[in-house]
Amino acid sequence: MNKNFNILVIASLLLVSCSLKSNKNDMDTQQKVKVETTLGDVVIKLYNETPNHRDNFLKLVKDGTYEGTLFHRVIKDFMIQAGDPDSKGAPAGKSLGSGDLGYTIPAEIVYPELFHKKGALSAARQGDQVNPEKASSGCQFYIVTGNVYTEESIIGLENQMNESKVHEIFEELARKHMKDIYKLRKEQNEEALLNLQEELIEKAEAEAALQPQFTFTPEQIQAYTTVGGTPHLDQEYTVFGEVVEGLEIVDLIQEVETDRNDRPCADVKIIKMSIID
Fold this sequence. Notes:
39% helix, single chain, alpha+beta, 8-stranded antiparallel β-sheet, 277 residues
């Protein structure tokens, strides 16, 4: 084989290798956003595992959508919420939180890898009754503050999660027997109602026992028992980023005085958001 040809082949392979490495690095890079507020600056890292939420957030940042909006809902030891477009220039005392941009984002719940530890960035949404798919608001978000849990309380939460699974199965079984339940109620046959209830409870417990038991991962336990968080929100809302700088500013915001609607009495405003290269 021609020596010059060999050199060209090697050079081509090196170029391909460099290109693949570059692409991998691009995939591994997590975009950051600086949030300038009236109480200080916060830097947020966006997760690549939730690309639709990431890209939507970046678009809104570029468009200046968040400039002038407020942290309109602040609950100490829980979370601070912002992004309502109606909060721009809102008069004092006005109830906020219903504003949107006319669209939602399909849920991207990546669990248990992404969870509600302190500093987690998550998408707000409407409740399950009107939004069973858990689709996210197109603009509103919250940053978790939460509480620090003991290992014993984490075990208690696991038990609650597993008990709620039994309750959900029981509710579904009860709906399937609704005609029988109405009939027995009409007949005032309390004994038969109690027997049916016991039967459905046993079926629910048996069905739940066949399913994997809920447990927190070691990573979750480590986070929830050290920095804290809001574990009861896991699997319910899309987590799409986290605070990497300025968590002390988040704490400052959660400490402000609020009214009966959880709106800060003195506005906490987002001055500007910018993408960090």
